[in-house]
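Postdoc handover notes: sequence design on the structure in folder B. Input tokens:
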């Protein structure tokens, strides 16, 4: 009887120990406010994003070294006074068709109650940058919405894109991915650096 009691106590302690990390994870999980859902502020300097999604750079042809994109956390070029921004260094200078960029998983996010996708962006004044690039939103139904962002400068600006302005997508209840695309045919600078911060979904006031 004593052995059984000791066993039960040890089992209960083990279960409690397992529950602590789970409780901690729940405490750290992001919560949406009434008017805004922060997807990625990059302030931790590590993956995943604020809603648990992975992200990274991609290239049309990784074997073509004259084109490509790399991502890096940047503690100098950030929006605000703390944390990090995301540095995207790209090149579409190849003699071959070239496009590349940055992807981020949205974890089947239901954004149907929001009106816009928004983010901070600026170009690198010393290295150079394109003033135009494409943004895509993808959903679980394989729809791809496209929108071209223009008039990028070397100063931080808040880009707010109405979801209704994305061409090619009609369902925002299960978003899977956010993508930035640098394209050789439209880039005003074939090589450069763009900084990104504070990706979020917002409601109109």
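Designed sequence:
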């Amino acid at each position: 009887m004593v052995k059984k009691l000791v066993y039960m106590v040890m089992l209960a302690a083990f279960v409690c120990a397992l529950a602590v990390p789970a409780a901690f994870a729940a405490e750290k999980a992001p919560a949406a406010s009434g008017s805004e859902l922060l997807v990625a502020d990059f302030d931790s300097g590590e993956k995943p994003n604020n809603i648990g999604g992975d992200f990274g750079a991609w290239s049309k042809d990784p074997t073509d070294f004259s084109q490509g994109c790399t991502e890096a956390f940047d503690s100098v070029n950030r929006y605000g006074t703390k944390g990090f921004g995301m540095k995207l260094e790209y090149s579409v200078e190849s003699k071959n068709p070239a496009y590349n960029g940055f992807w981020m998983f949205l974890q089947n996010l239901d954004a149907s109650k929001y009106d816009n996708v928004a983010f901070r962006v600026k170009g690198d004044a010393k290295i150079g940058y394109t003033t135009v690039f494409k943004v895509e939103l993808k959903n679980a139904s394989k729809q791809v919405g496209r929108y071209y962002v223009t008039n990028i400068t070397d100063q931080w600006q808040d880009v707010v894109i109405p979801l209704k302005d994305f061409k090619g997508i009609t369902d925002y209840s299960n978003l899977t991915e956010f993508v930035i695309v640098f394209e050789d045919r439209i880039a005003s600078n074939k090589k450069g650096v763009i900084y990104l911060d504070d990706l979020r979904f917002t409601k109109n006031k």
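Context for whoever picks this up: The longest strand covers residues 191-202. Don't rerun without checking with the PI first.
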